[in-house]
Amino acid sequence: MTFTEKALAVIQSIPEGKVMTYGSVAAAAGSPRGARQVVRVLHSLSDKEGLPWHRVVNREGRISLERGRGYELQKALLEDEGVVFGLTERIDLDTYLWQPSTSA
DNA sequence: CTCGTGACTCCCG
DNA sequence: TCGGGAGCCACGA
Fold this sequence. Notes:
Layout: H1 3-12, E1 20-21, H2 22-28, H3 35-50, E2 56-57, H4 71-81, H5 93-96, H6 100-103
Parallel strand pairs: 1-2
The protein binds a DNA duplex through residues 2-4, 21-23, 26, 31, 33-44, 53, 56-59, 63-66, 69-71, 74.
């Protein structure tokens, strides 16, 4: 089981209306410092595995992508799932952060 | 095998 | 408080 596979499983475990940070996914996958690998996983498998890449945001609960890069798409997808963006285009992690270990 | 890369994160200035 | 730089890890060429 590689980090990529674990990350893949973790990301797929994120339910609608919830989000996870790169760091959290990485940690859940076994590498607290592997946030960047999560990025890689999204890039490489989001398309093939049909991952909910839009449910992955940065540590601030914000979309890392820039306007015109996918930002609006991700935001739209999340809002469609019930995720609310704050006045600062930010997601309230206290409310929407998905924590795999705490749910089961 | 070594080098480069990346939708990150943290620490220091 | 804000900005810049280095660290990090795994994967593709």
